[in-house]
Write a structure and sequence with these properties.
- Helices cover 24% and strands 23% of the residues.
- 49% of the residues are buried.
- The protein has eleven helices and 17 strands.
- With 380 residues, it is an alpha/beta fold.
- The chain starts with 8 loop residues before the first strand and ends with a strand.
- β14, α9 and β15 form a beta-alpha-beta unit.
- The strands form three sheets. Strands 3, 4, 5, 8, 9, 16 and 17 form a seven-stranded mixed beta sheet that branches.
- Bound molecules: nicotinamide-adenine-dinucleotide and zinc ion.
- The site of zinc ion has 9 residues, from α2.
Length: 380
């Protein structure tokens, strides 16, 4: 691998030329990593709904041409100046938000919102020089959330890479680099349900089901899954959901249905839909006095959260989280160890797998609401 260090690599990448148009596999040039950057050979990547929102660019800022992808696993090919804690051959998981280890957030035990490297969905360039590392015949191709994993090689800031156990199978643990850790962490690190409590999960995609799994391992006695797609309900039983609600089956708001089912509201709720109505319902369905709601879904850029202030005065708490409050470099390696120790299952989240050449199929599955995670294999 050292043979390519310091040189431009030509490789295949799936380029999104325009919003909503199928990705095109192109030969791209990937520049060597600059100071504090790392070039990574991606082996497996998967599709998360956040990629789809920014590719559709209906409710988000369009930045094109762009290479999407942020849930992945790979191996370090070469490192830039100043990188001391990663070396060629290390196994890594890229993360859409980073950890510089030096700012006030990184030093706080409560935050993972790093000042330098926190998620920025509208920036398509590297922070070092404000330029891209991808190009086609000299024309820049933009990055996505600092990861751009739909490419055989990509350049990532060292602060957005978690070094993991090299024994961990990358075709499985790649899903821990976003969705599963996000949902699981949203419950266990942020909502923190007590044993025997009642939890509502809005949105039963991979993120929501990981949140349900977090409620199950926390000892919740009732886990109410809410989704508009009833085909998710059967699957959700495997993740601990005990009851299901489709808001479309009721004339009244789903928060009222939940309040009736639970004698005043659930103890905790976790929203994993990205839909503003679901976010408001997720807040209003928690019990007064102690209920906590956690927002995880990425909203439309113009969305506004509206509720009566009395809902808060009545001692309900509203929170939000990125990446389940895990610090990417410090905490993600131990989430991978949970998988290695069989304390956390990831196989049940992986419902499809396609070769890189068929990456557009992964988008079709997600748009149809079919399955949970589709692994994209870069090497065959
Ligand atoms: P997904 O598409 O697989 O699942 C979303 C589910 O929500 C679907 O089953 C859909 O039917 C359901 N849904 C949509 N609108 C609904 C509504 N009004 N009421 C009830 N259910 C509804 O997506 P995913 O990959 O699991 O991601 C879920 C959300 O989490 C997305 O918004 C994604 O952008 C976001 N996300 C956030 C973070 C973070 O760090 N905060 C990280 C990853 C993903
Ligand atoms: Zn920081």
């Amino acid at each position: 691998m050292a043979g390519t260090a310091g040189q431009v690599i030509k490789c295949k990448a799936a380029v999104a030329w325009e919003a909503g148009k199928p990705l095109v596999i192109e030969e791209v040039e990937v520049a060597p990593p600059q100071a504090m950057e790392v070039r990574v050979k991606i082996l497996y990547t998967s599709l998360c709904h956040t990629d789809v929102y920014f590719w559709e660019a209906k409710g988000q800022t369009p930045v094109f041409p762009r290479i999407f992808g942020h849930e992945a696993g790979g191996i370090v090919e070469s490192v830039g100046e100043g990188v001391t804690d990663l070396a060629p051959g290390d196994h890594v998981l890229p993360v859409f938000t980073g950890e510089c280890k030096e700012c006030a957030h990184c030093k706080s035990a409560e935050s993972n919102m790093c000042d330098l490297l926190r998620i920025n969905t509208d920036r398509g360039v590297m922070i070092n020089d404000g330029k891209t590392r991808f190009s086609i015949n000299g024309k820049p191709i933009y990055h996505f959330v600092g990861t751009s994993t739909f490419s055989e090689y990509t350049v990532i800031h060292v602060g957005c890479l978690a070094k993991i156990n090299p024994m961990a199978p990358l075709d499985k643990v790649c899903v821990l680099s976003c969705g599963i850790s996000t949902g699981f962490g949203a419950t266990v690190n942020v909502a923190k349900p007590l044993k025997g409590s009642t939890v509502a999960i809005f949105g039963l995609g991979a993120v929501g089901l990981a949140a349900a799994e977090g409620a199950r391992v926390s000892g919740a006695s009732r886990i109410i899954g809410v989704d508009l797609n009833a085909s998710r309900f059967e699957e959700a039983k495997k993740f601990g959901c005990t009851e299901f609600l489709n808001p479309m089956d009721y004339k009244k708001p789903v928060q009222e249905v939940i309040a009736e089912m639970t004698n005043g509201g659930v103890d905790r709720s976790v929203e994993c839909t990205g839909n503003i109505k679901a976010m408001i319902s997720a807040f209003e369905c928690v019990h007064d006095g102690w209920g906590v709601a956690v927002l995880v879904g990425v909203p439309h850029k113009d969305a506004e959260f509206k509720t009566h202030p009395m809902n808060l005065l009545n001692e309900r708490t509203l929170k939000g989280t990125f990446f389940g409050n895990y610090k990417p470099r410090s905490d993600l390696p131990s989430v991978v160890e949970k998988y290695m120790n069989k304390e956390l299952e990831v196989e049940k989240f992986i419902t499809h797998s396609v070769p890189f050449s068929e990456i557009n199929k992964a988008f079709e599955y997600m748009l149809k609401g079919e399955g949970l995670r589709c692994i994209i294999r870069m090497e065959d």
